[in-house]
Write a structure and sequence with these properties.
heterodimer; A: 103 residues; alpha/beta; five-stranded mixed sheet; 5 strands; 37% helix; 28% strand; B: 307 residues; FAD/NAD(P)-binding domain; 2 domains; five-stranded parallel sheet; 7 helices
Chain lengths: 103, 307
């Protein structure tokens, strides 16, 4: 299961290693398509942290990262954003993207 | 080899899957966006059996029901559909290939884009196509809704909960929405309705900053906005039907008869992608059930127990 982050632990949890963060909300249609894909790929790829951020509960973090449309998936290395994707990626393409960006 | 592949995962697609699975057909649903367009509706008030429910919640019930009955459901985008002898072949964006004895097309509508200069350039940089998805990012900001339909009016109503100002820019003389919604947005003092105006251009730097109108409004053709929500309606997503050489009318709708049969044997269609008399979930669901019955008859040679 992807770990849910909050305003207090976001920085610390993403500060080291490789991370993929899914900015989502419960009321967002496309996020419902992304959710099981994110979980599945997250359980398959080792050595990468899969996190999710509920934009309603984390308005400050979302705005700090300029999230204006969801789902937004941000790829991070040692606390720094390396790339982002807006909108849904399907299972195979998401998996490939994670492997390419965070190899 | 599947007995039936259903393309689209909204009311029509899921209902077809529920019926097909109960006919014991080997069934696959491929949905570009699971739940379809209704998942963009925060409140559904007219789906019988539910006094009020969110589009997401309603569709998650459809999905669970179809799954529990044995239908397979995948999220992917079908790029190609073809017929080779009696086999239908499907190719997807993820390079997956599937084969089926019959097809049910239930791809719904795709959104009409804002074609004015800047429209594409600022997509996701202030130009949005889903007020329920992205509206909350405009708390205390100024936004504009482009369009005059019922969906446009609903978007304005929703956005006024977050934004400090909502313009509705519509080229027609008067909005075309349900009277209840019209009364609501007219009474809302955050909403300003501009009828008879066209968007000539969208300008900004990193994000949207202003709309250039074709005529001056309150003395200026510039309208300062932080975000734009485009509600210009939908176009039936019927490209795959054309590839299969099924009949499509001048409005891009797949032509079906009362049995949801298209002009190609073994290909059925249901919901908003068809020449339906009414673009509503309940109608799409009904057509999905009919299409599944017709596919069952085609695949097994038996007539549906309900016909």
């Amino acid at each position: 299961m992807a770990v849910e982050l909050n305003e207090d632990n976001f920085k610390q949890m993403t500060s080291k290693g490789k991370a993929v963060v899914d900015f989502y909300a419960d009321w967002c249609g496309p996020c419902q398509t992304m959710k099981p894909i994110f979980e599945k790929v997250g359980s398959e790829l080792k050595g990468i942290n899969f996190f999710k951020v509920n934009v309603d509960e984390c308005a400050d973090t979302s705005s700090l990262y300029g999230v204006r449309s969801i789902p937004t998936i941000i790829f991070m290395k040692d606390g720094k954003e390396v790339e982002r994707v807006l909108g849904v990626l399907y299972e195979e393409e998401f998996k490939k993207k994670v492997q390419d960006v965070l190899k | 080899m599947y007995d039936v592949i259903i393309i689209g995962a909204g009311f029509a697609g899921y209902t077809a899957a529920i019926y097909a699975a109960r006919y014991n057909l080997k069934t696959l649903v491929i949905g570009k966006e699971l739940g379809g367009m209704i998942t963009e509706s925060s409140e559904v008030w007219n789906y019988p059996g539910f006094q009020k429910i969110s589009g997401i919640e309603l569709m998650s019930k459809f999905l669970e029901q179809a799954k529990s009955l044995g239908a397979e459901i995948v999220a992917d985008d079908v790029l190609k559909a073809s017929k080779d002898n009696d086999v239908f072949k499907i190719e997807t964006r993820q390079d997956k290939k599937y084969e089926a004895k019959s097809l049910i097309l239930a791809m719904g509508n795709k959104r009409r884009k804002l074609e004015a200069p800047g429209g594409l350039e600022f997509e996701s940089k202030g130009i949005h196509y889903c007020a329920t998805c992205d509206g909350a990012f405009y708390r205390n900001k100024t936004v504009a809704v482009i369009g005059g339909s019922n969906s446009a009016a609903h978007a304005a109503e929703l956005l006024s909960r977050f934004a400090k100002k909502v313009y509705v820019v519509y080229r027609g003389a008067a909005l075309r929405c349900e009277p209840v919604t019209h009364d609501k947005i007219k009474a809302d003092n955050k909403i300003e309705i501009l009828c008879g105006y066209n968007v000539r251009e969208v300008k900004g730097s990193q994000f949207v900053e202003k709309i250039m109108l074709d005529l001056p409004y309150k003395g200026s053709v510039e309208l300062d906005v932080d975000g734009i929500f485009v509600e210009l309606g939908g176009i039936p997503n019927s490209v795959l039907a054309k590839e299969l050489e099924a009949e499509v009318n001048q409005n891009n709708e797949i032509v079906v008869n009362a049995n949801c049969e298209t002009s190609i044997k073994g290909v059925y269609a249901a919901g908003d992608v068809t020449n339906t008399p009414m673009r509503q979930g309940i109608v799409a669901a009904g057509q999905g059930a009919i299409a599944a019955g017709s596919a069952y008859k085609f695949v097994t040679g038996k007539s549906s127990p309900w016909s």
